[in-house]
Amino acid sequence: MKINGIVKSIDIYEFVYETDDLDKIMKSIRELLGELYNKAKMSIDKLEGHFGDLITTLHIRLEGGDAERLLNSIIKRVKENKELLLSNERIEDGKYYLRINRQSLIQGKIEISFGGDSLKIVANIGKMNMDKFLYWLKENLR
C-alpha cells in the first residue's frame, strides 16, 4: 500500500550547540534527505543561549510527494525497535512525531529516540488521514 496524498508536509528541527560539529550534522541531514535535499526549504538561525553560548537552529520543510518519499525512506531504514514507530505518544492532533538519534544518524543509521540529542521530525498527516497512515505504517513494519 502506498501513502499517496496522506502526508501533507514534514518539518525537521534541530538545535546545534557550539560544542557540536555543525558540518557533520549538516552532512548527515544531506544524506538523510538524499535527492530531496535540493527541494527542501531550509532556514538556519543563530541564537544566543542563556549563558551567552551560540545555538544554531535548523528548520527543514518538505511538502506533498517529497514529504511522503522522505517519510517512507526513513521508515524503511529503521532496523531496530520498529515497534517504537507505532507508539501512541507519537500521534497528536493529526501529526506524527518522530525523533532520530543524532549520533546514529551521523554514523549513517536511523535509530529511534525519545529525547536527548535527536533530530525532531513532525509529519503533518491530518486527522482525517491518520487511520490510513497507521494502517500503512503497520503494513510496512512487517
Quick overview of this protein structure:
This protein is of the alpha+beta class. It has 4 helices and 6 strands. Strands 2-3-1-6-5-4 form a 6-stranded antiparallel β-sheet.
Overall description:
This protein has 142 residues and is of the alpha+beta class. The protein has a single domain, classed as 2-Layer Sandwich (50s Ribosomal Protein L5, Chain: A). Helices cover 30% and strands 30% of the residues. A six-stranded antiparallel sheet has the order 2-3-1-6-5-4. The longest helix has 14 residues, at 64-77. The protein is globular. The two termini are 12 Å apart.
Shape call: globular
Radius of gyration: 15 Å
How would you spell out the order of helices and strands?
A: EHEEHEEHEH
What does the main sheet amount to? 6 strands, antiparallel
What name does the CATH topology carry? 50s Ribosomal Protein L5, Chain: A
Count of separate structural domains: 1
| Poorly predicted regions | none
Strand content: 25-35%
Secondary structure tally, helices: 4
Q: Report how far the terminal alpha carbons are from each other.
A: 12 Å
Number of DSSP-assigned strands:
6
- Strand order, largest beta sheet: 2-3-1-6-5-4
CATH classification class: Alpha Beta
CATH superfamily, called what? Ribosomal protein L5
Helical amount among residues, as a percent range? Answer: 25-40%
Annotated CATH architecture: 2-Layer Sandwich
- Based on helices, strands and strand pairing, what is the structural class? alpha+beta
Q: Taking all residues together, what is the mean pLDDT?
A: 90
